[in-house]
Description:
Distance between the termini: 73 Å
Shape: elongated
Low-confidence stretches: none
Radius of gyration: 20 Å
Number of strands: 0
Number of helices: 6
Strand content: under 5%
Largest sheet: none
Helix content: over 70%
Amino acid sequence: MPRLAILVLVAALAGGCATWPEPGTGGFAERRAVEDPGLQGLTTRYESLRQRGAERWAAGLADEARLLLIRAQRNHQAGLVDDLADDRLRLARVLDAIEPHLPSPKP
């Protein structure tokens, strides 16, 4: 019985040593800095479109772009080069599709 108590105590303390993201907030891949230049450019473009109202004027496409961006970040962190290339192409196409739905940027 004392061995079981020690094991339970160690397991409880070990769980407190790790820093895990809060549920529903994404994983560690989304929190790391993007090192791929192509993905950085697409991330900047996505943020620019969001600031111009993409979530209001093209909600479905904006959500699809967000999911593709998350997938691309995960593939980049996992080292899946071919999948990352496919995700970058798809994301660029979705961002191109969002552009005509938005009001013109103010000078």
